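Progress note, project year one: complex with zinc ion.
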Amino acid sequence: MARERLYLFDTTLRDGAQTNGVDFTLADKLAIASMLDDLGIDYVEGGYPGANPTDTDFFSESRGLRGKFTAFGMTRRPGRSASNDPGLAALLEAKADAICFVAKAWDYHVRVALETTEEENLASIRDSVKAAKAKGREVLLDCEHFFDGYKANPKYAIECAKSAYDEGARWVVLCDTNGGTLPHEVEEIVGAVCKVIPGDHVGIHAHNDTEQAVANSFAAVRAGARQIQGTLNGLGERCGNANLVSIIPTLKLKPEFTGKFEIGVSDAQLHKLTQVSHALDERLNRAPNRHAPYVGESAFATKAGIHASAIMKDPATYEHTAPEAIGNRRKVMVSEQAGKSNILAELERIGIKADKDDPRIGRLLEIVKERETAGYAYEAADASFEMLARRTLGTVPNYFDVTQFDVNVEQRNNAKGERVTVTMAVVKVKVGEDNLISAAEGNGPVNALDLALRKDLGKYQRYIDGLSLTDYRVRILNGGTEAVTRVLIESEDENGERWTTIGVSPNIIEASFQALMDSIIYKLVKSGAPA
Ligand SMILES: [Zn+2]
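Model obtained:
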């Protein structure tokens, strides 16, 4: 039997950007959009063009996604024509494949918040859909407060949705805007809507205020809806949106759904889910939730004892699904054997051939364990892991030695009597027989050190000319008796390849230096620089 197509719509970059403490830059948005696209998400909602400079910039180019790049905005304002509304004009200008309008679907909100008539609200929906269709865009309508609106006035709520559908909107999305609706209510109300609008044109947008956004999304699918909106890691205002990181594996792995539905995420893409979830947290500079379903570090961790020995015999005894399917790992105690196989799997992934009986593998495992205890997180810093592995296996040439560095931060009055902070770094490097000295000023100690370090590497300079530092994140860890600093540096080369390196030390400059060195050496290895 042919399976029905179920569509995934991600709103991390729009609704997720409402999360307290989250403020995406254009670089963040580009990186997250490409991550979502690589995951196989059907619609990537990028933001609200015209509402702020970042979103307007983001939509100034098409961004070449495989999924549909979607702009979000309001329907035309009441009392204006569609052609005389600057907000709508900015939305229609956006280089988007699809436009998702938001409109009121609750008569009370139409009167009180919008201060207009029910009829004018319907006309605004129709006109906006028509204008976007005329521009060749696929159109979605987010019906705000749909469930509360339906409870207050079902006829009007459905009329709002129906007027968009009749005008040619591809999707009508039912939003549980304040997140208070319960799964049995969602199922009943979505069922009623699907009698009027075909379910393959109906979507669900759930918020997590009763911790049931994921359950509400599935309730809507059971009732006929065929699009689910959500965010990575459940990011979103207040308690968040429906978490796509939990929804996707359930759709892919649970027979109730996988037997009936097909989604855009392949098995291979599902393998990347854990990595995607953690990459988002790293970007937000927050620690991943260890207990997150499917992708958390503890999601498949079992303490030693009767469960562990049963799991060793057959994992299915205590696991609801196989961790490898979502790129997670089973954790049973930290036995030498289990650790070794993790290391070997990791080496294979980055293309390093190793023999499982090679004593250096055991040594590498020891070092990784020691360092992770000290605060290193190699999962977030692939390039540093690769450097550590290659060093332990003896395959990294000694390109150069930094014999000395010196960073000086000075605060003083300048000639105009203004207080200024000046930072300068001096680095002494030995390349072969050459002793090189470079100095650089920077806007801070790490920046100055980075500039000085990369200023002159003698015969290796040409290999690192295209190297640039794209992100720098610092976290203070309270491990043991003293706080240590963990620095993660993301670098990019002339081909757009990105990698992350790590450094840990009680001293932030020392931690940064480690991460900078790993990044430079990684680039030399990758470019095949001769020893
Ligand atoms: Zn929302």
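The mean pLDDT is 92.
The radius of gyration is 27 Å.
No further modelling is planned for this target in the current period.
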